[in-house]
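Q: Got a minute? One more chain.
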Amino acid sequence: MDELEHTSYESVEEENRPISNARLAVLVLLGAEIMFFAGLIGTFLVFRFGSVTWPPPSQADVRLPIGVTGLNTIVLLLSGYTMFQGLRAIRQDRQKELKNWLFATGLLGVIFLVVQGSEWVRLVHHGFTLSSGVYGSVFYVLIGCHALHVLVAVLWLLAVFARAIAGRFSVDHYVGVEVCAIYWAFVVVLWPLLYILVYLI
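A: Always. Here it is, folded:
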């Protein structure tokens, strides 16, 4: 019994350290992700500002869905707020609210992906594909990579939500929620930058 209590105490102590192994791992992951997207954005900027006209004349008739994507940006930003509220709830041991906020976050993430996917279908239908020269390539690679990361974040969130339903989180044990929230914040904060660069500039 003493050994069990000692193990439990060590687990709580590990969770409450400023930088636990889980927190450190997700920060290292984000460091790699930031370098990855910095490379993609750098490539986009080279093509964008290295071209006399943008989009290239062959793709001048392509109209990116600025308005719809702008609204979709608000959806993703709102998901960042709901994720923060979920983390705040479990820090105050409000487990029911955690479940509600996680569900709302996941739903907003799915809506973002569905809207973005439907817009891609429309663009492809109008002949704008990955093989549509440099413009199509940089668009789908950069925006597609972000969409893939949002999908990963949604799947991660589903796993956290399942654990929340099972009552695995408490005020003393919520690192799983926290690291997921950190990754979610990354994909949320990154998107407005990509939206401005690719859709508006």
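A: DSSP finds six helices and no strands in the chain.
Q: Perfect, thanks.
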